[in-house]
Amino acid sequence: MAGFKHLVIVKFKEDVVVEDILKGMQKLVSDIDAVKSFEWGQDIEGEEMLRQGFTHAFLMTFEDKQGYTAFVGHPCHVEFSATFSTAIDKIVLLDFPSVVVKAAT
Amino acid sequence: MAGFKHLVIVKFKEDVVVEDILKGMQKLVSDIDAVKSFEWGQDIEGEEMLRQGFTHAFLMTFEDKQGYTAFVGHPCHVEFSATFSTAIDKIVLLDFPSVVVKAAT
C-alpha cells in the first residue's frame, strides 16, 4: 500500500539479541492502531561494500503523516525507542509519503 | 506483499536531475516482469542527524530470490545501473526475504 512510510535501517551492536528487539517491535505495532502494516528483513548475503555494515531493515506504513505523528508520540513508542536506541551501532531513518509506481497484483 | 525485497537508499549528487533517474527507473520496472511492485519516496522533513544525508528510498519486491537474481542480470538493469551509479553520492543496498508482521488491510 502507499501511505506514509517509516523506514529504519540499522546495524545492531554485537551483543544484542535481535529476537528480543523483534518481540518488542511486534508488540509495538500490535498495540498501536496507527501502524497499518509492518515488515522487516535481514540482509544475509548482500555485498558488504554495498550494505555498509547495515543488516536489518524495518518498514512501517501509516495511512498518512498524521498517523505517523501519532505513532511517534505514542507512549509505547517513546518507551520502545529508549530501549531500541541502546541496541544500535548505526542507524538511518527515512520518513516519506510513498509513491507507488508498480503495484503488487 | 512479502516476497524478496531490494531496498536502495541514496543521496544523489548535487547536479543530478532526479526526475530523469525516476523516468529510467519507471521504464526499468515496467520492462522487467520479475519486478512485482515498486515504490519510492523522498524524505523531505526527517531529522538530518537521523537520515545522515540520505534523501531517497527505493523499494522493489520480487516473488522470490530467483526473481531478484533474474532482475539483477537483466540487460536493462545492467544498463540502468551504469547510469545510476554515476548519479550517486552515497548508497546503501539491502536485499532480504521480507517478514510480514502486520499486513495492510
Automatic annotation (TrEMBL), chains A, B:
Show the Pfam families listed in the entry.
Dabb (PF07876)
Q: Gene3D superfamilies under this entry? A: 3.30.70.100
Annotated coiled-coil segments of the chain: none
| InterPro entries assigned to the protein according to its UniProt record, in alphabetical order | Dabb, Dimeric_a/b-barrel, HS1/DABB1-like
Record-annotated Stress-response A/B barrel domain positions? 4-96
Quaternary structure per UniProt?
Answer: Homodimer.
Name of the molecule in the record: Stress-response A/B barrel domain-containing protein
Origin species, per record, is Gossypium laxum
The organism that produces this protein has a lineage beginning with:
Eukaryota, Viridiplantae, Streptophyta, Embryophyta, Tracheophyta
